[in-house]
Amino acid sequence: MRIDEILQQSSMPICSPSYPKGPYRFINREYFVITYETDPEAIRAAVPEPLEPDGSNTVSYEFLAMPDSSFGDYHESGLVIPCIYKGEKVNFTAEMYLDCESPIAGGREIWGFPKKLAKPSLEIKGATLVGKLEMSDQLVAFGTMGYKNYNLITNSDGSKSENIEKIVKLLSKTQVNLKLIPDIDSSLAIAQLVAFNCEDIEIKGAWQSPAKLHLVPHRGAPVADLPVKKVIRGLHVIADLTLAYGRVMYDYLEKKK
Predict the structure, then answer these.
(1) For residues 224 and 216, is the Cβ–Cβ distance under 8 A?
(2) How confident is the model at residue 155 (pLDDT cuts 50, 70, 90)?
(3) Does 26 have pLDDT greater than 70?
(4) Which of 193, 205, 198, 178 is nearest to 69 (CA)?
């Protein structure tokens, strides 16, 4: 294989790349997000400098279904912490668990998502939206919410609600990952905070309802290290969007020089 052919590849292995080149589009991406209060010291321990917790003492636990994406059909679950960086409100992705190799490899290598292999799910059971995360055949997270209890984007007269703009703003908020990639000697070749935003967002549905969340301590998926003190709300959203390429927000190795 010629050098110019090698440099045109999207990912390894070169005989069968793990993921394609972008843009990365998601159709009918489904979010079940439970926002809750937790221990501020636990938040501080999970947030890398120079990010700062936003002071709300809240985090969001997410269950997601991606039935039609550039990475295939898969599920995802994890923790997101609201933070501040140089006065800007951002979300830090603390933990993520997936059931498909392609988005795990692409997410880690391109954006630095902290993705690991596990068994997340998002289903409708009767009148309840149910999210689960299992690892090593053990239950790690279990969330429930009333299914489509309160419509956020359609008014009683059938007109579109102003909430649509608020939800688009929520989904397009700057997201931040801690990207750590080792060199050949296992020292860090890349140590960055990577920022990115979702684009071309079309909200297809959004609902709110009281929710419950149960987290179980597990060494491989330590989501319970941010314990649930009080559930604030449950949010269910279905949207089409594009996951844009990222940008380096902070380079730890450059700062060290």
Answers:
(1) yes
(2) confident
(3) yes
(4) 198
The H or E element that residue 238 is part of is strand 230-243
Cite the active site residues. Answer: 115
Three-state SS at 136: coil
Domains of the chain: 22-256 (2.40.400.10)
Question: CB of 95 within 8 A of CB of 221?
Answer: yes
Pair 145, 234: CB distance under 8 Å: yes
Burial class of residue 162, CB neighbours in 10 A (0-12, 13-18, 19+) = exposed
Can you tell me the distance from the alpha carbon of 124 to that of 113, in angstroms, rounded to the nearest whole number?
27
Amino acid identity for residue 189 in this structure: A
What pTM was computed for the model? 0.95
Q: How confident is the model at residue 145 (pLDDT cuts 50, 70, 90)?
A: very high
Q: Please check whether residue 122 is in contact with residue 74, taking contact to mean a CB–CB distance below 8 angstroms.
A: no
Closest CA to 111 of 46, 174, 185, 51: 174
**214: helix, strand or coil:** strand
pLDDT digits (tens, 9 = 90+) for 88-117: 999 999 999 999 999 999 999 999 999 999
List pLDDT tens digits, range 37-78.
999 999 999 999 999 999 999 999 999 999 999 999 999 999
Q: Compute the mean pLDDT over every residue in the chain, rounded to the nearest whole number.
A: 96
Mark residue 67 as left, alpha or beta (left: phi above 0; alpha: psi -120 to 50; beta: remaining). alpha
Name the residue among 71, 73, 96 with its Cα closest to residue 177.
96
Of 83, 249, 253, 238, the closest CA to residue 164 belongs to 238
The Cα–Cα gap between 226 and 211 comes to 17
